[in-house]
Input
Amino acid sequence: MRALDLEYMLGLVPVILGYVPLTLFMALVGMALALVLASLLAVERVFKVPGLDWLVLLFISFFRGTPLLVQLFLFYYGLPQVLAFLTQINGVTAAIMGLTLHFSAYMAESIRAAIAGVDRSQWEAAQSIGMTQGQMMRRIVLPQATRIAAPTLVNYFIDMIKGTSLAFTLGVTEMMGAAQKEAAGSFRYFEAFLVVAIIYWVIVEALNQGQKRLELFLNRAYAR
Amino acid sequence: MIDIRGLTKRFGETTVIDGVDLRIAHGERVVVIGPSGTGKSTLLRCLNFLDRPQAGQISIGDLTLDAARASRAQILALRRRTAFVFQNYALFANRTAKENIMEALVTVQKQPRAEAEARALAVLAETGLSDKADSYPAALSGGQQQRVGIGRAMALHADLMLFDEPTSALDPEWVGEVLDLMRRVAARRQTMLIVTHEMQFAREIADRILFMHSGRIVESGPPEQIFGAPKDERLQRFLSRVGA
Ligand SMILES: Nc1ncnc2c1ncn2[C@@H]1O[C@H](COP(=O)(O)OP(=O)(O)O)[C@@H](O)[C@H]1O
Ligand SMILES: [Mg+2]
Output
């Protein structure tokens, strides 16, 4: 056993931090796209569009039923062999696509549950005053569903941030990739990966604190 | 003038509204009574198309709609001429009292916000809730919520106001204030169709009482006749059961 090379670690921190923007970029873009896709999937699940419902169920089942890493490999290494136009896609884009599809399947379910959690009589009240279905969803149901789903969605965002580390396996130099490269020269693998772990940990803890505040805020909303 | 003919609603095999004919004059206040499970709520819900009838014709003013082939636009038009007060209030939880009343004015009737807000505040004043304008439903008592629910319906200036047991979900202490507000609405000769178990109230404000049984209007007449000289044996039994 040897002592941790703290000096080496401190020196590495700014290097790895330099890749935090890429991590956040992948997670934020992935989250934004996943929110849009998940909302569409959830609304379909609520209204059960004939002919579309089975496709949505299949999509959700597949992306929840298989590991994210397997999905990323399928997209990045597998699909271009079948679909030629995908050969142009770089690792970052593939990672964002994979994260989006994977997490949208999970988020669709929590958004669907949140929509179902909005008291049915409010839907009827909206219809009774002559609102169209679109007005009812936009103005009454979805704003309340968003609040119900928000804490869960923050959890998925945290999972997505951690999931971006898998982009490393697609050849993307993000935090993991950078640490790997640094350690390859210094042989200080433990220190290098520990720095990565600590940076993830700090980011996630910060988000956890934010989530607690968010929940307090949401619990107070509509109560005054 | 509201004219309903042959209104029929089935849930699966069960016929819940069995070819109901009903005419309501402008400004008439009609109260529906009857045992539970006879289709009173369903009748009201069909008139608002919250439940879709399988057959029948509904005319309100110049709008006539054939239930079997009502288009989406006709359904919206019908809903815009009727206002519904729910047993459990059904206020929008993400809107304040004032916004609950404004919602239809802004979103459906496309009134300018300032105008809608002025009308909402005027309605709140009538319901005695001016000081609660900016409260969310969760912060209101049951009685206050139902007064907002009635206010939301009043603000629509609908041709027909439908009340489905508006006091049944309330703690007894709040019933009086809600009935008082309904009396005030009735005093303006607003056309109203009310399902209630408050027999004293029915006797007092109704121009006509309908007794429903098994999806049909079995007997109808002015309160003195229904309560004083009921003819149908089922009505007699019902009245003795509710102690009226
Ligand atoms: N959505 C529904 N699906 C199936 N049956 C229903 C539904 N709504 C009402 N019913 C049935 O229709 C009948 C009339 O119900 P309702 O109109 O609520 O009666 P009331 O208001 O007079 O108590 C009842 O037997 C009830 O079980
Ligand atoms: Mg009922």
Observations:
- Residues B 40-41, 165 surround magnesium ion (ligand 2) (CB under 6 Å).
- The first strand of chain B starts at residue 2 and ends at 11.
- Chain B is about 40% helix and 25% strand.
- The interface with chain A takes residues 48-50, 76, 79-80, 82-84, 86, 88, 90-95, 103-104, 107-108, 134-139, 152, 156 of chain B (CB under 8 Å).
